[in-house]
Design goal:
Layout (H helix, E strand, L loop, with lengths): L3 E4 L2 H20 L5 H4 L3 H8 L5 E8 L2 E9 L7 E9 L8 H15 L4 E7 L3 H10 L2 E5 L6 E7 L1
Parallel strand pairs: 4-5
Antiparallel strand pairs: 1-2, 2-3, 3-4, 5-7, 6-7
Length: 157
């Protein structure tokens, strides 16, 4: 399946960004309780970060349909390590092997930016994501002290 990655057009697609994040939150926590608090300042942050080097925000398209979103950066607290904030596909595009393509895209961007590793945080309740990440080679690092039932994973690029 041919997909393409385009920088997010905040003015045109911000409501979709929020909808995607809400669904990702539901997948992670089983409820959207607390989502509204988590999204406060998101638009301003998105606008600011897109102006700065090292931040990556992409929408994923299949033909004329917007099917997902990626948010990642080429830095973290660990040296030479990028951080993946969001890998999201709408439900009807999950399980089609696109997760591998998304990770290959992220990997290429991070390697070009000088990263040797990538890191992400995932909810223990998001079994589908956990299964995918483990199968793709992500390795458990440690629990997230700020996130209940959340763990950090890392992969060599």
């Amino acid at each position: 399946m041919d997909i393409r990655f385009e920088p997010i057009s905040i003015d045109t697609h911000f409501s979709q960004c929020v909808a995607f994040r809400r669904d990702a939150y539901l997948c992670s926590f089983g409820s959207d309780v607390g989502f509204e608090d988590s999204i406060i300042g998101y638009e301003a942050l998105l606008r600011q970060n897109t102006l700065e080097e090292g931040w990556y925000y992409f929408h994923i398209w299949h033909e004329s349909q917007l099917i997902g979103q990626l948010e990642f950066r080429s830095f973290s607290r660990s040296v030479d390590t990028g951080y993946v904030q969001l890998i999201y596909l709408i439900p009807e595009y999950r399980g089609l092997g696109l997760g591998t393509k998304l990770q290959e895209f992220i990997r290429a961007q991070l390697i070009e930016a000088g990263c040797n590793k990538a890191m992400l945080c995932v909810s223990r309740a998001n079994e589908r994501a956990l299964h995918h990440y483990k199968r793709a080679g992500w390795e458990y690092l440690f629990p997230n002290p700020k996130g209940k039932n959340m763990d950090f994973y890392q992969i060599d690029l």
